[in-house]
Structure formats: structure tokens, C-alpha cells
């Protein structure tokens, strides 16, 4: 059941209508049932995995809170091991089996890998990390467990952010579930805006960008430099609009019902360095990796070498979180490397004086944004490539086969890219200058009406017809 489908519109219309007429207790019960229906629409068999994670972490949370120190560690271990075992089996079993077979083959040892026909449960990486943070925070005494099992189950399965985040913390979302919520007209308007903007990002921009991206990245494609570069630009825009679109819709759905779901993207392509990028991109994951992996490893408190080691480990595991493929591992390594490089050169960068002239200062900022944007683009090439072989061929084309003999073909693709992305760039400039992601929502009603009408006709006339899945559903 996709957010960008009529089926979901009907589903949410019924859920929201019931929500308005129920009291707090039955709102939560109804939302829990709706969340299970929503997830069961993908594959009802995988509801058992959510149920296992829910019961496991609910019981472990209570035991951690009431037990002595040694038993606290035991129940924390049970929680983390149980969650990671489920995630590892469904997401990584075949990957590691095939990788081990390839490694043994390199040394001349041949064996047939034991492979299973495993279907990856949608959203398993998201809700697994969400439930793990609950027991870890209780162990750290940052959170007290709830004894309201059904309310905790709703925290785990809350359908707006269940299958692709944001990865909420119990300290933020659970109190909102436990406390009564009232309908507010200002929340309603804000929620409608977020949903509409999210649908525009997904249907008009991301799904249309896929028409440029998919043929170039197909396994049977013939590569050439200019078209590869255009497809890379298109994918850089596509993955942002697809994922940020989902996050905005999730936030909007929550807002309609009085929930405050965290911001997951904050203008990431305005970043001028990798540390800033990860404070703006997939914020819930980057904060999770920081708080539950990087800092426990020692963070930057144990010397330069340990800091670099921790950065590499964190980003490698962050890459592997995205998918069971060596391209994702390499993507994580790439980001670990640029984080290290930035830390190495930061003392020299800080000595470069900013231009005193206002216009020159803006040009200097723009130059840094454009440069780092291309650093990120290179990372997205690693991320999107179907295999290491395809990645190697595309990199070779970018740097050695940049032939523009078929210029009309490239011109058409470039024209499409500019048409679909132009409004995004304009709006994001306004958002950045005002330091407000809701800047359009706060503008005068006449301007909003004109802009929303224009966007509506863009969706109606040029939006993708079919309901395409969100990219991050595969993670």
C-alpha cells in the first residue's frame, strides 16, 4: 500500500475519519490495528516479525529497568542479539553466503553456496533500529519503560513512518502516543501542505527522473560519458526527492493526527562538507549511528587514529545497513574516507579568509556547494551501480569516453532534467535563505494558491501515471 496510490488515500480517509471521533485510548487501539493492516497489505506473514520485535523489546525493556547490573547487560544482549539476528538472516544471509563462496574460490576452494529463497521484509531495517534504541536508552537510564504494551506496539508499528522512517526514538514518539491528542486546525493545514509537497517531490520529480536514470543504469545498457553524467545528476535529484518525499508525507500524516514526527532532511545539497551533509541527510539514521555506534566506539575522544577508525567502522556499517551488496559497503567506505579527508584538511580550510565583499562571499559559498555537490554525486554513482563491474565501466566512461557526438539525445535528457527539477531548486533556495523548511506554508494565501495550482497541474499533466515504490522500501 503506497502513499502515492488511491488505495492508500481511501485507507487513510477511513482511518482519519475514525480517529476524529474516538477518545485517546481507542485512537491508539485503532491506529495499532490500522498499522498492522497497512503493513499486512505488503505481506501479512511478516507481521510475525514485527510482533516478535515488539514482544522481545517490551519484555527486555522491563527487565533491564528492574534488574541488577549484570542482568541488565544480559537482557540488553538478548534484545540486541535477537533484533540483529532477525535482520541479519532476512537481509544478509544470502549475501554473506555468496561472498564466502567467492572468497574461498579465490583461494582455489570450490563449494556450492547454500542459498535460501528469502524475501526481504519491507522496512525491517527501520523498525529494527527503532526498537533497539528503546532498550539501549533504558539501559543507559535515559528512558523509563512503558507498561502499556499496546501503546508500545503502536510505537513500533506506527504506519506513517513504519516502512521508510524517520527512525524515531521512543523518548520523542512514545510520550506523544501515551498522551491525549486533540485535533488542531493549524496542524491540519501544515499536515496537508507536507503531504502535498511530499507527493510533488515523489510523483512529479523523483518518478520522472527515473525515466532518465533507469535506462542508463540497466545491466544491458551501453555506457557513454555525457549520458552517464546526466543520469547521475538525475539520480542525485531522484533519491533526494523520493526519500524526502516519503518523509514529508509521513510527517504530514502524523501532523494531521497531532503527532510531531522528526525532520529527516534539511536541505542536504546545500552542505559544503561531509560533516554538514550528514547533519542534513537522513538525519534520523545519522543520529542513530552517532549515538549507538560511533560514540560507544569512542567517538573522537581517544585520539586521531581511533577517531578515524570509528568513522570508517560507522560508515561501513551505515553503508551495509542500506543493502546487502558490495556497492553499499564501498559507498559507506567512500563517505568514511571523505569524512577523514575533511578532518585532515579542516585546519587549513579554516585559515582561508572569507571574502569581505558580500557578492564575492556568496560566490565563494556557491563554489563550495557546487564542489561538494559533485563529491556527493560520485558517491551516488557507487550507491546506484548494479555491481562493481558496472561501477568501473561507468567511471571509465565519465573520465575517458566523454563523446558528445549524439548531442540531440543528451539535450532532450538535459531539458527533461531541468523542467522537472527547476521548481525544486527555486523553493530550496527560498528555504535556505529563510532558514525555514515551511517557508511556502507561511507565505501569503494568494501566492500559495497560485503556486499550489501550478503544482497541481504539473502533477496532473506531467506526473508519473503509475504508482512507483519508494526507493528506500528496499532497505
Major beta-sheet overview: none
Number of strands: 0
Give Rg in angstroms.
Answer: 23 Å
**Helical content class:** over 70%
Chain-averaged pLDDT: 89
Shape: globular
Count of helical regions: 17
Low-pLDDT stretches: none
The N- and C-terminal alpha carbons lie at a distance of: 17 Å
Descriptive labels:
475 residues; mainly alpha; 17 helices; 0% strand
Gist of the model:
The protein is 72% helix and 0% strand. With 475 residues, it is mostly helical.
What does this molecule look like?
The protein is mainly alpha-helical and 475 residues long. Helix content is 72%, strand content 0%. It has helices spanning 6-21, 24-43, 47-66, 69-106, 124-139, 149-157, 170-178, 185-217, 225-256, 274-280, 283-294, 304-322, 326-349, 358-384, 388-400, 407-434, 445-462. α2 (24-43) crosses α6 (149-157), α9 crosses α15 and α9 (225-256) packs parallel to α16. The mean pLDDT is 89.
Chain-wise SSE layout:
Elements: H1 6-21, H2 24-43, H3 47-66, H4 69-106, H5 124-139, H6 149-157, H7 170-178, H8 185-217, H9 225-256, H10 274-280, H11 283-294, H12 304-322, H13 326-349, H14 358-384, H15 388-400, H16 407-434, H17 445-462
Helix pairs in contact: 1-2, 2-6, 3-4, 3-5, 3-6, 4-5, 6-7, 8-9, 8-16, 8-17, 9-14, 9-15, 9-16, 11-12, 12-13, 13-14
